[in-house]
Amino acid sequence: MNYNLHKGPNWFYEVVVCISEYYLKTEDKIIGNHSKFGVSRDDMKRFFSKYEAYKKAVLNDILPIYNKYPSLEWLFKPVDYKIDVDRPIGASLITFWGNKSTKNLKDDFIDNIIKKYISSTISEIINDVDKEDIKINGITDLLDILESIEIDDDILKMHLIRLYHARYETVRKLWEMIHTCVPILKKHFYIIKEDVDLVLKALSDETNIEKVLDLSVGVKFKTKLYWQLYPSIFAFNSFKMEMQVEENYSYIGIYFLKLVDLKEKNKFNEDELVSDLKALGDATRLKIIRVLLEKGMYLKELAEKLNLTPATVSHHINIMLKSDLIFITIGDEDNRRVYYEVNRKKLEAISNSIKRLASIYRE
Q1: Residue 317 belongs to domain with CATH number
Q2: Contact of 288 with 301, CB cutoff 8 Å
């Protein structure tokens, strides 16, 4: 993976993820699952001490600002989508925005961005539709597209319609709020700077990224794509990748490498085994595993092989990706096509865990 490592966060991205984390409280979930990482609750609590101090200081100052924009709340509050969407629309939109201009936002510029974002979102969800083939010239086009495609999620459809219908006001207010909040995140940055510097030092060695991609993220590259890579404070436990025509963006959480390392050292534990077996405990997912063991496939090809819709296959693939049972390979003649393969090392690890259970005898 070739990348340009930025020496600080993308502050626009941090604002929207911070507001999302006000609702999500991901650190509480990880602290609650401390045994999965092989550490005590108190140790995990200490591990997050600087992050929690930074988050508290930032939210204390930006929530009064955020509360002045009630029309933006739907962009950040968690929604129980039927489709696997791993982040609220606000964070997703700003990730997609990348380094494009955020000032003097004219109607035609907003039109172009929102149409591309909605087309990309639809394409990612159903995979077998190229975003270049999705033409949105008005609300009627969008309604027709959403009616015709295989997305069984009325809430997500309504959110995409709402974003398009109120795009000018929504985008302008969103960026107005973000620009107001950025100085606050920078003001309190000293609280978390040491942890950011540590991950930047680790990321300066490209082999660390390759190791993480191989062990945890489940992504392999057939060709060398170039990425703008940012450390992320509030997306502290994730590795996000946004591929676009102009540029590719990545956000790696400041604790991601450490959490991957802890999880790897403690990978043979009961909680992990139960989670993995749940991911395998479905007839459709077992069929997918069996087919992919024969060869890697693109989503549409896999769906046709199993006589299922791409949306259904995508749902099951995402569950298995979270348990590292499947990995993604990116890159072919256009450097961007995605196909899926089975993580045989993970299957072997599950098998070894079960064998160890079988080797226990009563005295």
Answers
A1: 1.10.10.10
A2: no
